[in-house]
Amino acid sequence: MHRRRFMADSGMGFFGLAAGAMLAADGVVRGDTPTGQHHFAPRAKSVIWVFLSGGYSHMETFDPKPALNKYAGKSYADTPFPNPVDSPLHRKRFRSVPAEEINVRDVYPKIFPMQIGFRQHGECGVEITDWWPHLADCVDDISFVRNMWTTDNDHAAENQIHTGRHRLDETQPSIGAWAHYGLGSVNENLPRFVVLGGPTRTDTRASIDAYYLGPQHAGVPLKLDPANPLTFGSRQSGQSAGQQADEFRFVNELNRITAEEFPHDEKLQARIKSYELAFRMQSAVPEAVDLSAENSQTSELYGINDAHSKVAGQRLLAARRMVERGVRFVQVFPSSYGTWDSHQKLKANHAKMCVSVDKPVAGLLKDLKQRGLMEDVAVVFCTEFGRTPGLEERSGATTGRDHHPNGFTVWLAGAGIKRGHVHGATDELGYHALGEGHYVTDLHATVLHLLGLDNTKLEVPGRKRLDIDRGKVISDILT
What we know:
By secondary structure, the protein is of the alpha/beta class. It contains 13 helices and 13 strands.
């Protein structure tokens, strides 16, 4: 009987998923690129990448703009500032899929006031809005990057923030896949690239995918259910651990017999490794996602006891447990697809969504700090784009903002990151990222740099990447 058929018939169907995402723990199927080696001394051992789907408003979160209140109801032309729609930056950073003559997104001329107040916080005096009371306590540990920009003005930007490519261009591997490709594992019993809460939909699979790097480098979605954290990752009903171990030994013996016959078959050697890893994962993964092992103080810290913040709190706590156990890259979706998308009722929506993540993400930073992990873990907090300074008026809307790729804010904290720092800015109305700004791959380059990887050296034979794919390290936010 063929080995693959044997595995399927023996209740080992989870091998396809495990092997697809974690094949080649020894690095034998990664082309000619050296892997498992740092290009230089790393600042961080692991990354927790927190992504908020839908596009939060930078002006109502981390880049307050009082000019919006002063000139509310007026058009851009009625302010003393240059009309941002006339700026050459608008054409440079705005790539619509619909024809330009029918696209009205991003150019709404009536200024919409801020929907929440703001204050300075911490010794650094960074201004953020009042929707973040818990995160406000952490600003002295954060670097805010206020001059990000991207090009897709629709929600395919969710993939773009992770791959660096517009949907009209060739897809690239995701940032997590590049980290997986470039580094070896700290814990051989767990995936190197774990995904919690995502991908948010089937059409956002690109945000965790590896494409031409090979499926072994893609993210592994895990559920926070110790009884079944990995799809097809449990033994058959009625099968004992001993019986399954016997099956593994038998299949391993068959593989090694074949390996003696074909000693230069590197993929076979990698497959043997993947079987072993899949078996080890059955005990390691359930333990890693078992939040019942945490005390009540930790649950309170992450907001798990509050129904509004429970889901985000559980996922972020699980992320901490993953990096504690040596997972290199944890991609967390605290909320479901598009929940920050506020075309209407921005005030009500953002107030609710901020409550859902404010305490959990602040809890993550505080927890990492008290455990001494801020020197080992870098945290990234991002979304796919910002929101328009102008009022969205499509279909008679009067209470929200449209998508805005021209300028928005992300932040980083932890290993190798300056604390209490603001980098870059948008203009007075929050429209354009000033100066060159940072395209999304600059964020990628920075994260890989923190992990000890030179983004320009992560090459694959036969694949020529563009300069924009590589990005440039945002050196100003590094210690």
